[in-house]
Amino acid sequence: MIRLGPLTPLVTLLIGVFRTRWTGRRFWLAAAYGVLCHTLFALAVGAMIVMMFFGLSESFGRVPQPWAWLANLALVLQFPLAHSFLLNGRGRRYLAWFAPEAHAKTLGTTVFAIIASVQLALLFLLWTPSGIIWWQAEGAVFWIVCAAYGASWLLLSWASVDAGAEVQSGALGWMSLAQGKRPVYPGMPTAGLFRVIRQPIYVSFALTLWTVPIWTPDQLLLAVVLTAYCLIAPRLKERRFAKRYGREFADYRARTPYILPGK
What is the DSSP code (8-state) at residue 131? Predict the structure, then answer.
């Protein structure tokens, strides 16, 4: 048995895929979803890192003013609204629309990751820059801010691994289908960063929004809206956890701070 801490389930799934015979419609269907999922995931994360680094002063949107602000606001809002909807019980049923009926349940995490990646890619690639730059870090300050930005992304990656890299990346669905087995979902995360606070993913995501080296009105709009989402969405998540895990979650909540260590 491979022991790589929180990465163990993902590595085990990956080894299982390589040991599986690469034949049959089911396997190649799973592989197609996997390629699509991870390609879009890389595109979305890459676009987010690069575009925010420049404070959204560079992108491909070209909507004329004053309509650009409405278009940008719509791009910002579509992510948290649809993301939260698809996470609740009613919304999850719509994920089945994007996979063959026989495999829709197995591919649930992969489809969710694909949709989230498309949303993020649209947000950052179709943004229309205002052309206004309020502040740009220079000299030693630039390198300090860049270090903070990089650390925020490392923290987000760490928290995502602790939460279950196989789920967060969308790999659980297609890798399970490729091997012809049911997905095994991780339990409630309580290890790693989740021992320090209950919501490390949302906190680290918010940190990426506020540690950029270039500030524009565009970046401020993005940071305010998505930080508000990072404050509201965990409450909804914890309601789901309370229903699913009951006493286990109640005990975890009692001993672990919400978003600030030691609070």
Answer: -
Length of the chain in terms of residues written: 263
- Enter the tokens of residue 242: 């309370």
Dihedral sign from CA coordinates of 217, 222, 223, 225: positive
Spatial distance between the Cα atoms of 88 and 84, rounded to a whole number of angstroms: 7
- The C-alpha atoms of residue 122 and residue 113 are separated, in whole angstroms, by 14
Distance of CA 8 to the CA centre of its chain: 20
Residues in a beta bridge with 4:
6
> Cis omega (within 30 of 0) on the bond before 66?
yes
pTM of the model: 0.92
- Residue located via tokens 């829709």: 104
The kind and range of the H/E element at 40 are: helix 25-53
How far does Cα 36 stand from its chain's mean position? Answer: 16
At 143, the amino acid letter reads W
Residue 140: partners with Cβ closer than 8 Å, 6 or more residues away = none
CB 257 within 8 A of CB 198: yes
**Residue pLDDT, tens place only, 131-167:** 999 999 999 999 999 999 999 999 999 999 999 999 9
Backbone angles phi, psi at 240, to 5 degrees: -65, -40
DSSP state of 93: G
Contact status, residue 124 vs residue 61, Cβ threshold 8 Å: no
pLDDT in tens, 69-99: 999 999 999 999 998 888 877 778 888 899 9
DSSP helix/strand/coil, 179: coil
Number of DSSP helices (H) and strands (E) in the chain, helices first: 10, 2
Cα angle 108, 112, 118; round to 5 = 150
Burial profile 64-86: b = 16 or more Cβ within 10 angstroms, e = fewer = eeeebeebbeebbeebbebbeeb
